[in-house]
Amino acid sequence: MTRRRVMNILIKEWQVLFTDLNSVLTSTLLPLLIVGQLILYIWLVVHFGGQTILGQQVFQTAMEKLRQAVPAVAGLPVGEQFLVLLLNQFTFFLLLIPTMVAISFATFSIVEEKLSGSLEALLATPVATWELLLGKTLAGALPALVVTWLCCGVFLLVVAGVGWGHLSHLVLTPSWFLSLFLLTPAVAVLSFMLGVMGSSRARDVKSAQNMALAIIFPVLALIGVQVTGVVWFTPLLTVALALGIAVVDVIVLRMAVLLFQRESIVIRWR
Protein backbone atom coordinates (compact mmCIF):
# COMPACT_ATOMS: atom_id res chain seq x y z
CA MET A 1 0.00 0.00 0.00
CA THR A 2 2.83 2.40 0.81
CA ARG A 3 4.38 1.92 -2.62
CA ARG A 4 1.02 2.49 -4.29
CA ARG A 5 0.35 5.70 -2.36
CA VAL A 6 3.81 7.08 -3.14
CA MET A 7 3.32 6.20 -6.82
CA ASN A 8 -0.03 7.99 -6.84
CA ILE A 9 1.64 11.12 -5.53
CA LEU A 10 4.40 10.77 -8.12
CA ILE A 11 1.87 10.49 -10.96
CA LYS A 12 -0.13 13.46 -9.66
CA GLU A 13 2.97 15.64 -9.36
CA TRP A 14 4.26 14.64 -12.80
CA GLN A 15 0.90 15.49 -14.37
CA VAL A 16 1.27 19.00 -12.98
CA LEU A 17 4.98 19.28 -13.82
CA PHE A 18 4.87 18.07 -17.42
CA THR A 19 1.74 20.00 -18.37
CA ASP A 20 3.17 23.32 -17.20
CA LEU A 21 5.42 24.93 -19.83
CA ASN A 22 7.34 27.03 -17.29
CA SER A 23 8.20 23.95 -15.22
CA VAL A 24 9.35 22.02 -18.29
CA LEU A 25 11.54 24.89 -19.48
CA THR A 26 13.02 25.31 -16.00
CA SER A 27 13.85 21.61 -15.81
CA THR A 28 15.53 21.55 -19.25
CA LEU A 29 16.91 24.95 -20.22
CA LEU A 30 18.35 25.79 -16.78
CA PRO A 31 20.54 22.62 -16.65
CA LEU A 32 21.75 23.21 -20.22
CA LEU A 33 22.58 26.80 -19.29
CA ILE A 34 24.67 25.59 -16.34
CA VAL A 35 26.57 23.15 -18.57
CA GLY A 36 27.12 25.79 -21.25
CA GLN A 37 28.44 28.30 -18.75
CA LEU A 38 30.84 25.75 -17.27
CA ILE A 39 32.27 24.83 -20.67
CA LEU A 40 32.64 28.51 -21.54
CA TYR A 41 34.44 29.24 -18.24
CA ILE A 42 36.83 26.33 -18.74
CA TRP A 43 37.60 27.48 -22.29
CA LEU A 44 38.22 31.07 -21.15
CA VAL A 45 40.43 30.04 -18.24
CA VAL A 46 42.52 27.66 -20.37
CA HIS A 47 43.01 30.16 -23.19
CA PHE A 48 43.38 33.41 -21.28
CA GLY A 49 44.11 32.77 -17.60
CA GLY A 50 45.84 29.41 -17.42
CA GLN A 51 49.42 30.59 -16.92
CA THR A 52 48.45 33.09 -14.24
CA ILE A 53 46.41 30.55 -12.28
CA LEU A 54 49.03 27.82 -12.62
CA GLY A 55 51.55 30.12 -11.00
CA GLN A 56 49.57 30.13 -7.77
CA GLN A 57 50.71 27.75 -5.06
CA VAL A 58 47.19 26.51 -4.27
CA PHE A 59 46.68 25.24 -7.82
CA GLN A 60 50.14 23.67 -7.90
CA THR A 61 49.00 21.61 -4.90
CA ALA A 62 45.85 20.60 -6.75
CA MET A 63 47.93 19.57 -9.77
CA GLU A 64 50.12 17.37 -7.58
CA LYS A 65 47.08 15.58 -6.17
CA LEU A 66 45.70 15.13 -9.66
CA ARG A 67 48.96 13.47 -10.79
CA GLN A 68 48.81 11.14 -7.78
CA ALA A 69 45.19 10.20 -8.45
CA VAL A 70 45.62 9.86 -12.25
CA PRO A 71 49.30 9.00 -12.91
CA ALA A 72 48.84 9.10 -16.71
CA VAL A 73 48.35 12.86 -16.47
CA ALA A 74 52.03 13.36 -15.63
CA GLY A 75 53.06 12.66 -19.22
CA LEU A 76 50.96 15.50 -20.65
CA PRO A 77 52.02 19.12 -21.21
CA VAL A 78 51.31 21.34 -18.22
CA GLY A 79 48.51 23.15 -20.02
CA GLU A 80 46.65 19.91 -20.72
CA GLN A 81 47.20 18.75 -17.15
CA PHE A 82 45.48 21.92 -15.98
CA LEU A 83 42.63 21.27 -18.44
CA VAL A 84 42.19 17.75 -17.03
CA LEU A 85 42.02 19.27 -13.54
CA LEU A 86 39.21 21.60 -14.60
CA LEU A 87 37.30 18.92 -16.49
CA ASN A 88 37.43 16.67 -13.42
CA GLN A 89 35.36 19.23 -11.52
CA PHE A 90 32.39 18.77 -13.84
CA THR A 91 30.64 16.11 -11.75
CA PHE A 92 30.62 18.50 -8.80
CA PHE A 93 29.22 21.29 -10.96
CA LEU A 94 26.53 18.81 -12.01
CA LEU A 95 25.32 18.87 -8.40
CA LEU A 96 24.16 22.42 -9.02
CA ILE A 97 21.55 21.20 -11.51
CA PRO A 98 19.23 19.36 -9.08
CA THR A 99 19.74 22.06 -6.45
CA MET A 100 18.77 24.86 -8.84
CA VAL A 101 15.80 22.90 -10.19
CA ALA A 102 14.70 22.19 -6.61
CA ILE A 103 14.72 25.89 -5.78
CA SER A 104 12.59 26.59 -8.84
CA PHE A 105 10.20 23.65 -8.51
CA ALA A 106 10.07 21.90 -5.13
CA THR A 107 9.56 25.11 -3.16
CA PHE A 108 6.27 25.71 -5.00
CA SER A 109 4.96 22.23 -4.32
CA ILE A 110 3.10 22.50 -1.02
CA VAL A 111 2.80 26.30 -0.84
CA GLU A 112 0.68 26.38 -4.00
CA GLU A 113 -1.53 23.59 -2.68
CA LYS A 114 -2.01 25.55 0.53
CA LEU A 115 -3.04 28.66 -1.39
CA SER A 116 -5.33 26.77 -3.80
CA GLY A 117 -6.98 24.71 -1.05
CA SER A 118 -6.12 21.35 -2.66
CA LEU A 119 -3.78 20.36 0.18
CA GLU A 120 -6.67 19.92 2.63
CA ALA A 121 -8.28 17.29 0.41
CA LEU A 122 -4.95 15.48 0.04
CA LEU A 123 -4.36 15.41 3.78
CA ALA A 124 -7.81 13.92 4.29
CA THR A 125 -6.70 10.76 2.43
CA PRO A 126 -5.04 7.77 4.19
CA VAL A 127 -1.60 8.80 2.87
CA ALA A 128 0.96 9.08 5.67
CA THR A 129 2.91 12.30 6.09
CA TRP A 130 6.24 10.65 5.25
CA GLU A 131 4.70 9.08 2.15
CA LEU A 132 3.41 12.46 1.03
CA LEU A 133 6.76 14.18 1.52
CA LEU A 134 8.75 11.34 -0.01
CA GLY A 135 6.45 11.22 -3.03
CA LYS A 136 6.75 14.94 -3.63
CA THR A 137 10.53 14.75 -3.23
CA LEU A 138 10.95 11.87 -5.68
CA ALA A 139 8.55 13.50 -8.15
CA GLY A 140 11.06 16.30 -8.60
CA ALA A 141 14.32 14.50 -7.85
CA LEU A 142 13.92 11.70 -10.41
CA PRO A 143 13.33 13.96 -13.46
CA ALA A 144 16.09 16.31 -12.26
CA LEU A 145 18.45 13.35 -11.96
CA VAL A 146 17.63 12.13 -15.49
CA VAL A 147 18.19 15.64 -16.86
CA THR A 148 21.50 15.80 -14.99
CA TRP A 149 22.71 12.56 -16.58
CA LEU A 150 21.60 13.78 -20.01
CA CYS A 151 23.55 17.00 -19.44
CA CYS A 152 26.58 14.86 -18.64
CA GLY A 153 26.23 13.26 -22.07
CA VAL A 154 25.94 16.70 -23.67
CA PHE A 155 29.07 17.80 -21.83
CA LEU A 156 31.08 14.83 -23.13
CA LEU A 157 29.90 15.48 -26.68
CA VAL A 158 30.87 19.14 -26.48
CA VAL A 159 34.25 18.26 -24.94
CA ALA A 160 34.91 15.98 -27.91
CA GLY A 161 33.64 18.64 -30.31
CA VAL A 162 35.99 21.37 -29.09
CA GLY A 163 39.04 19.13 -29.39
CA TRP A 164 39.42 17.87 -25.83
CA GLY A 165 38.16 14.34 -26.52
CA HIS A 166 41.65 12.79 -26.28
CA LEU A 167 41.61 13.68 -22.56
CA SER A 168 38.27 11.98 -21.82
CA HIS A 169 39.89 8.77 -20.55
CA LEU A 170 41.69 10.83 -17.91
CA VAL A 171 38.42 12.44 -16.80
CA LEU A 172 36.16 9.37 -16.78
CA THR A 173 37.75 7.91 -13.65
CA PRO A 174 36.09 5.62 -11.06
CA SER A 175 35.58 8.66 -8.81
CA TRP A 176 33.86 10.44 -11.70
CA PHE A 177 31.33 7.62 -12.16
CA LEU A 178 30.82 7.15 -8.41
CA SER A 179 30.07 10.84 -8.09
CA LEU A 180 27.66 10.72 -11.02
CA PHE A 181 25.68 7.65 -9.94
CA LEU A 182 25.95 7.76 -6.13
CA LEU A 183 26.70 11.29 -4.98
CA THR A 184 24.46 13.10 -7.47
CA PRO A 185 21.29 11.10 -6.59
CA ALA A 186 21.93 11.64 -2.86
CA VAL A 187 22.32 15.40 -3.36
CA ALA A 188 19.27 15.51 -5.66
CA VAL A 189 17.07 13.89 -3.01
CA LEU A 190 18.46 16.19 -0.31
CA SER A 191 17.86 19.29 -2.44
CA PHE A 192 14.24 18.43 -3.13
CA MET A 193 13.65 17.26 0.42
CA LEU A 194 14.80 20.64 1.74
CA GLY A 195 12.65 22.36 -0.87
CA VAL A 196 9.56 20.37 0.10
CA MET A 197 10.25 20.87 3.81
CA GLY A 198 10.62 24.61 3.28
CA SER A 199 7.45 24.63 1.21
CA SER A 200 5.51 22.82 3.94
CA ARG A 201 6.56 25.35 6.59
CA ALA A 202 6.45 28.57 4.59
CA ARG A 203 3.52 30.87 3.95
CA ASP A 204 4.90 32.02 0.62
CA VAL A 205 7.27 30.81 -2.11
CA LYS A 206 10.09 33.23 -1.25
CA SER A 207 10.38 31.88 2.30
CA ALA A 208 10.45 28.30 0.99
CA GLN A 209 13.22 29.14 -1.49
CA ASN A 210 15.41 30.54 1.28
CA MET A 211 15.54 27.12 2.94
CA ALA A 212 16.36 25.31 -0.31
CA LEU A 213 19.25 27.73 -0.91
CA ALA A 214 21.08 26.13 2.01
CA ILE A 215 22.20 23.19 -0.14
CA ILE A 216 24.01 25.37 -2.71
CA PHE A 217 26.77 26.48 -0.34
CA PRO A 218 27.99 22.95 0.57
CA VAL A 219 28.01 22.09 -3.16
CA LEU A 220 30.15 25.13 -3.93
CA ALA A 221 32.40 24.15 -1.04
CA LEU A 222 32.90 20.67 -2.57
CA ILE A 223 33.97 22.28 -5.84
CA GLY A 224 36.32 24.64 -4.04
CA VAL A 225 38.09 22.08 -1.86
CA GLN A 226 38.92 19.84 -4.83
CA VAL A 227 39.85 22.44 -7.44
CA THR A 228 42.19 24.12 -4.94
CA GLY A 229 43.73 20.85 -3.80
CA VAL A 230 42.53 20.97 -0.20
CA VAL A 231 40.90 17.55 -0.66
CA TRP A 232 40.97 15.23 -3.65
CA PHE A 233 37.95 12.94 -3.83
CA THR A 234 39.24 9.41 -4.28
CA PRO A 235 36.74 6.57 -4.96
CA LEU A 236 36.64 5.65 -1.26
CA LEU A 237 36.10 9.25 -0.17
CA THR A 238 33.42 9.76 -2.82
CA VAL A 239 31.51 6.68 -1.64
CA ALA A 240 31.84 7.81 1.97
CA LEU A 241 30.51 11.26 1.09
CA ALA A 242 27.57 9.78 -0.85
CA LEU A 243 26.66 7.48 2.04
CA GLY A 244 26.96 10.37 4.48
CA ILE A 245 24.56 12.49 2.42
CA ALA A 246 22.18 9.50 2.13
CA VAL A 247 22.07 9.35 5.93
CA VAL A 248 21.36 13.08 5.98
CA ASP A 249 18.50 12.45 3.52
CA VAL A 250 16.86 10.08 6.00
CA ILE A 251 17.38 12.52 8.89
CA VAL A 252 15.93 15.42 6.90
CA LEU A 253 12.88 13.31 5.96
CA ARG A 254 12.25 12.56 9.63
CA MET A 255 12.68 16.23 10.49
CA ALA A 256 10.31 17.21 7.68
CA VAL A 257 7.65 14.83 9.04
CA LEU A 258 8.00 16.28 12.54
CA LEU A 259 7.81 19.86 11.26
CA PHE A 260 4.92 19.25 8.89
CA GLN A 261 2.21 19.58 11.58
CA ARG A 262 -0.51 18.01 9.50
CA GLU A 263 -3.51 18.97 11.62
CA SER A 264 -2.46 22.57 12.18
CA ILE A 265 -1.86 23.08 8.45
CA VAL A 266 -5.42 22.02 7.66
CA ILE A 267 -6.85 24.37 10.29
CA ARG A 268 -4.57 27.31 9.48
CA TRP A 269 -5.17 27.24 5.73
CA ARG A 270 -8.93 26.75 5.74
Task: Tell me what you see in this structure.
This protein has 270 residues and is mainly alpha-helical. The chain contains 14 helices and no strands. Helix 8 crosses helix 10 (174-201). The model has no long low-confidence stretch (mean pLDDT 80).
Kindly, what is the distance between the CA atoms of the first and last residues, rounded to a whole number of angstroms?
29 Å
Structural class: mainly alpha
Q: Which residues form runs of ≥5 with pLDDT under 50?
A: none
Average per-residue pLDDT, rounded, comes to: 80
The major sheet is characterized as: none
Strand content: under 5%
Instruction: Give the topology string: H per helix, E per strand.
Output: HHHHHHHHHHHHHH
Using the alpha-carbon principal axes, give the shape.
elongated
Question: How many alpha or pi helices?
Answer: 14
Give the helix proportion (percent range).
over 70%
CA radius of gyration: 21 Å
Number of strand elements: 0
